[in-house]
Amino acid sequence: MNCQKSIAALLLAMFGLMACSSTDSEEEFLYRTDEFGNRYSPALLSGVVEYMPTMKPESVRIVVADASLNPKDSFEVSPESRERGSFAFSIPEQDYEYPYLKFVLVFPSEKKSKMEFSQYARLRSQDYNVNLQFYGALISGRIETLVQKEKFSFDEAETKAYEELEKELGVSLDGPKYNPFRDRNYWGDPGLYDMLPYVVCRHEISDSAFYSDYKEFRESFAKKGTISESIKARAADAWLSTFKLQSDSTQLYPFESKTRDTSSCLRFIDTTFFEWAYGLDASWANRDSVQIKNKSSEYNGRMLIYEKANITGTREGWRLRTLLEDTIGTCSYSRFELMEWNASAYYCGVAKLGWEKLDDIDTIMNLKYYLTCRRDRDSYGFVGSFNDSLYVCSCKSDEACGWSKVKEDYETTEIDSLSVNVMASIRFGVCRDHYNEKQMLDSIMLRCDGNKWRMVDSLSYYMGICDNNSNITDYAKMPNGDYYKCRTFGGKEWERCTPLEANGVPCNSDNRNTYKEYEGRNYYCSNEKWTEVTEE
Question: pTM for the complete prediction?
Answer without folding.
Answer: 0.72
